[in-house]
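agent: user wants the structure for Terpene cyclase/mutase family member from Brassica campestris. delegating to structure tool.
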Amino acid sequence: MWKLKIAEGGSPWLRTTNNHVGRQFWEFDPNLGTPEELAAVEEARKSFRENRFAKKHSSDLLMRLQFSRESLSRPVLPQVNIKDGDDVTEKMVETTLKRGVDFYSTIQASDGHWAGDYGGPMFLLPGLIITLSITGALNTVLSEQHKAEMRRYLHNHQANKHYLPINEDGGWGLHIEGPSTMFGSVLNYVTLRLLGEGPNDGDGAMEIGRDWILNHGGATNITSWGKMWLSVLGAFEWSGNNPLPPEIWLLPYILPIHPGRMWCHCRMVYLPMSYLYGKRFVGPITSTVLSLRKELFTVPYHEVDWNEARNLCAKEDLYYPHPLVQDILWASLHKIVEPVLTRWPGANLREKALRTTLEHIHYEDENTRYICIGPVNKVLNMLCCWVEDPNSEAFKLHLPRIHDYLWVAEDGMKMQGYNGSQLWDTSFAVQAVLATNLVEEYGPVLKKAHSYVKNSQVSEDCPGDLSYWYRHISKGAWPFSTADHGWPISDCTAEGLKAALLLSKVPKEIVGEPVDTKRLYDAVNVIISLQNADGGFATYELTRSYPWLELINPAETFGDIVIDYPYVECTSAAIQALVAFRKLYPGHRKKEVDECIEKAVKFIESIQESDGSWYGSWAVCFTYGTWFGVKGLEAAGKTLKNSPTVAKACEFLLSKQLPSGGWGESYLSCQDKVYSNLEGNRSHVVNTAWALLSLIGAGQVEVDQKPLHRAARYLINAQMESGDFPQQEIMGVFNRNCMITYAAYRNIFPIWALGEYRSKVLLQQGE
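agent: tool returned. relaying tokens verbatim.
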């Protein structure tokens, strides 16, 4: 039976700054579990399998089942159900809140954070399995149980035409809810083969997947990232790739195209890719690799036109088509520059570039304790370390951190989009529980969460000359996940600061000692340092180059990835945090704080869409962006009565409210940049909570409360018998086009919204 372990090391090769606080990994124990517990797990798996085409998202039940067994849960209060036409009473809301927090407290981890599924993308696990296969570490790192769960996951998320309408297929998508793509289909087919599946195994699933690939032109039509992965495996030729010259790292930083000016996720992925490309590294050619060369292409492997393949991409994958200037650039590099750099004396420059990229790879590894900024560069960096020296300490230090990225749910084992969302979810959870005004009742929950917030703040900048390593300051920041990960992020720092400030106002006898004032000052320093000239905030760093750099974005699947753009979410979070800080510490850097807030407010107002919404870049989508837009302006004292911007936002939200009283927004909004309802106009508890929070914050309570009552009724009726809320469609997104799971959102935001509704709508009515 699988068991989630919290804040544990377990390997002499693991490094940590804070005794592994926040670390989460799954371990298989064959002796664990009663017959009843094992039966409950199998029932969850069976139910998902049978309903996987109607509901593609797991409910994260294995973690919930485990934590509910281990916790001292309270008796479950009676479920509330409100009929149409009945009033929502304060007692009903209080009961719903207690049921919600009672349940949510049972799945709080021992170190204070909330763990949860952060999967969704379908291209992450293949990179790991390809890397482990090449390095010979597959059977060392992964047990048979790991591999079985991974196969379960890949089969569960295959679009199988035996079960779907005739227009459906047998491929895999970019993410769990997306249509089949060549990128997803080829890489996941290859992954199953490397995990031991034969070409005709899986009750026909492999054959169906291969048919999709061949019927759509074969693997030559895979995206550039897919071409790279197949090339290192040996199932594709490097000559079929557009160049990724490592020499770009030797250019002067003053040039706008220098990788140090790119969005950190972009540059940290292309850093190891350029090393592997520069080396033209190819792993061992095994019998499976030779077989894949026959299985993946529509013509014999030796007849593939690799030069033509460089620019081929299946139409199903083409979210960001190459502009003409990019095709000219790649052709010039391929035909003119590369031949020079691969022969003497140009080869000397190539060797220098490879040494430079490797130096930056090691710096990233060492300063994230070998977690790395994300799963793609994690496995690429690990592969680069092995290519440099298969017996190196660096490679050995990478191996145990693989488990930080793996998550098990009833749909199987997946690779997550980060090493978790621990700090992000916990900061929101603190604000949600505090919004209930049930502080004393849930003091122990808040005290544990407070401990996690304190233990997760980054205490030092990265070592050395930050400008040389293209790094921003990080001392005082909060990361998205854990202190060991350590990358500073603007909105995570803001949400961490908000949580710390709110908890500092609660008696320490209830929630523990507050965060030291100096550490709060450090956080404010990070936030102020991240404001761009236009007033907006990007994610990890300042915006360092120009939007036209997107012209050289080679990733056909993703949009807006080359530079770190300013976002409404990051800017709003910064405003809210600084306003909260200013109220408690009005004298600290007053002029700078005031100016920062003022500029940020103007930025948010300037990027509002013509319909009154804001586009959300990190969750679905206009309801999420509008929540941040409104809350940022609310913090600055603006409401629908004194701000046309806020009034317009309210009009937008009210226009999207559904007959059920809720809101339900599809991920299609993200990729199409046009508001789209969920299929069948279904409501979603998370979208509804964001909309309700926005309207309450904007002052809708003083204008017309009926929409608020309708939304609250929907949320109350959506609550499950256990006090949990249902997992519905996927709600997270990145790079416009790829969806990602936030399993905690279904709990956090309904609790938060109903808490605000109770205190700012119902209780104010009674006064």
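agent: one observation worth passing along. The mean pLDDT is 96.
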